[in-house]
Design brief:
The protein is an alpha+beta fold and 281 residues long. 33% of the residues lie in helices and 19% in strands. α10 runs antiparallel to α12. The protein is globular and about 55 Å long. 31% of the residues are buried. The mean pLDDT is 92.
């Protein structure tokens, strides 16, 4: 069975008051770095199929990224071995590719360069409506250019946080979306497609949560490994987890440009009323 909402996101995901982008950073023990459940083989098989049919859209690398990526591969192998999972590695692959094939998470390598933290490698089979090919070699600020109000709300904070992470430090944060497609991979074509508003907002909508971790490498301290584990649940199945939380408040407080970016402008008011029938808007 997939992880439950409470297992995957054991924190308060939503916030009351004025909406803003938040880091929501929390420390993480090394033993909890990767989330492995009984869907591991399903994720691995799906990755293998995507890498067979759409390799250049899933695996992106910059020359010179191999060394730091090799450290990521060894960390992944050690994490799996600690759970009694010995794995065979294809040494002919770029290390970020080899590592990504072993786990449920997508992997991104960010390296500090003269113009900031730059994406130098990624095994990204399950993006949420973004294109890895257009992001490789780009700085953190450029990667987030399409995100409304990112720079004003958290841009400098993110860069400072990356700079201040100590070698070996490990943290995580959650990120959520509402989608109408349960697929693990959501291609950029979905970027401008608003989630529809069914008569019953609880039907046909999925809560998609990314559990993201950041790990400053020790052998390559100018590199950070960023992992993304995708979870998704039908809204109707997690309604008990959402009722009584500030989810409806956050939907209502979201600025229209951000709601439009998240593709939920057409459904967020109805969904909020569905979750909290006493709401006026």
């Amino acid at each position: 069975m997939p992880m439950s909402f409470a297992e995957a996101v054991p924190v308060d995901l939503f916030r009351e008051g004025t909406f803003k982008w938040r880091l929501l950073i929390r420390s993480l023990q090394e033993t909890a770095w990767l989330q492995i459940d009984d869907q591991l083989e399903t994720y691995r098989e799906t990755k293998a199929e995507l890498l067979e049919s759409r390799f250049d859209e899933c695996l992106v690398t910059e020359p010179g990224s191999e060394s730091a990526a090799a450290e990521v591969l060894e960390l992944v192998r050690a994490a799996l071995a600690a759970q009694g999972r010995e794995v065979a590695v294809d040494e002919s692959l770029h290390p970020i590719d080899a590592a990504g094939r072993l786990i449920q998470e997508d992997l991104i390598l960010m390296e500090r360069q003269a113009h900031g933290w730059v994406m130098t490698a990624g095994s990204i089979c399950f993006p949420t409506r973004w294109d890895p090919v257009s992001k490789i070699g780009q700085s953190m600020d450029t990667i987030h250019d399409p995100v409304p109000q990112y720079q004003d709300m958290v841009g400098s904070l993110v860069n400072r946080f990356f700079d201040r992470m100590q070698p070996g430090s490990l943290v995580w944060r959650p990120n959520w979306s509402l989608v109408d497609d349960p697929a693990l991979r959501l291609d950029p074509v979905h970027r401008d497609m608003q989630v529809g508003g069914p008569e019953d907002p609880g039907a046909g909508l999925w809560l998609r949560v990314e559990r993201q971790t950041l790990r400053r490498l020790e052998e390559h301290p100018d590199a950070i490994c960023f992992t993304i584990r995708v979870h998704r649940w039908p809204i109707a199945e997690v309604v008990d987890d959402l009722v009584g939380t500030p989810f409806a408040d956050e939907l209502a407080a979201m600025p229209p440009d951000i709601a439009d970016y998240k593709n939920i402008e057409d459904v967020r008011v109805e969904l909020g009323r569905w979750l909290d029938p006493g709401r006026n808007g």
